[in-house]
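With this grant's support, we have settled on a layout for protein records. A representative record follows, to show the layout.
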Amino acid sequence: MNLPNKLTLLRVCMIPFFVVFARMNALWAQCVAVGIYALACVTDALDGRIARSRNLVTNFGKFMDPIADKLLVMSALIVLTAQGRMPDWACILMLAREFLVSGFRLVAVENGVVIAAGPLGKLKTVFQMISTIALMLLVPVDGFALLGQPGIVAANVLMYIALALTVISGADYILRNKDCIKDM
């Protein structure tokens, strides 16, 4: 197994540890959760870069990398929603987009078409990761807010940017690939 695939699997293995610490209300546990999550996000950037630069792109990586990304971000969205740090409707919209795009990809594969992630989808993922980190750092579970009200506002602005990119990239994805379901 090559290094990029190991990084992808490491990201998946980090998710349960992230969730356990993120569900604790103690400030130290929240800091550990953010550290684990941020490190997992870095592995996302590294595995693709290494795979392309060293010509280590594999079918396993093409399959598993997007799943690992979705599992990581979805875990953060669900934890943040459960803690009241993120509105449930925003979480539902973001999750719905991921399921919709995954469904499109399945239909496309059945028709022999492989649809790569586009620039908007990649930007969406980056903003989802940044906004979830901001929500974890700046919106308190109980008590202390790192930067007070301005931090909470900044985290929410980042979340709404991520939400807008989620909706826009989902619509763009559907419009660019509508031929996959034209028999409906």
